[in-house]
Design a protein that fits this description.
The protein is built from 4 helices and 6 strands, in the order αβββαββααβ. It is α+β, with helices and mostly antiparallel strands.
C-alpha cells in the first residue's frame, strides 16, 4: 500500500510510539467499502492481543456484508483530544491504520481475543466477562485486522 506523506511531518510518531498509542486506545472508527462506492464508517471497540488487532462484532449486519465483499478497510483511532480555544487548535493523539479484515473461524483464537476484551476493557469485572464468553462465543464474530500501513500523529500543545 502506498504511504502518503503527512501534511505536518513533525507531528508523525515513530513506529514504536504509534504501536504504544494503539495499545492505549480501545475505541475506533472502522471504515469499509460500502454499496455504490460509498464508504461506511462504524464505531467499534478493539483490543491488541500479541500485537494483533481484534474487533468484536455481531456476525451479521451491513458491516459484515461489506467486509465479505471487500475485506480492505481503515481503522481510525483517537486516543486523546482536547480543544485549545485560546490557540484555535486542538491537542490530540491518533492512529490511522489501513489493512484487511479476516473473520476468525478458529475457536481458540476467538476465545483468546474475547479474553483480551475482558482483561483489557473489563478490569474488575472479569468473572462476568468470562461467563459472557461462555454464553456468547458462538454468537459473536471476531475480526482480525491485518495492518498493511499505519501512522501515528500527535500534537500536545
Amino acid at each position: 500500500m502506498k504511504q502518503h506523506p503527512m501534511h505536518k511531518p513533525e507531528r508523525q510518531l515513530s513506529p514504536a510510539d504509534t504501536m504504544a498509542l494503539l495499545k492505549r486506545g480501545h475505541h475506533a472508527v472502522l471504515s469499509v467499502n460500502g454499496d455504490e462506492g460509498y464508504p461506511y464508517a462504524v464505531p467499534v471497540n478493539y483490543v491488541l492481543v500479541n500485537d494483533t488487532v481484534y474487533i468484536h462484532s455481531a456476525p451479521y449486519g451491513y458491516k459484515m456484508e461489506c467486509l465479505e465483499k471487500d475485506p480492505k478497510c481503515c481503522l481510525s483511532v483517537i486516543v486523546s483530544a482536547q480543544i485549545l480555544p485560546e490557540k484555535m487548535t486542538a491537542k490530540y493523539e491518533s492512529v490511522v491504520a489501513c489493512g484487511t479484515i479476516t473473520i476468525v473461524q478458529d475457536r481458540e483464537e476467538k476465545v483468546k481475543a474475547l479474553e483480551g476484551f475482558v482483561t483489557q476493557l473489563g478490569a474488575g469485572h472479569e468473572a462476568v466477562g468470562y461467563k459472557m464468553i461462555e454464553k456468547m462465543t458462538d454468537k459473536t464474530a471476531i475480526l482480525r485486522f491485518q495492518v498493511d500501513a499505519i501512522t501515528g500523529k500527535a500534537y500536545l500543545g
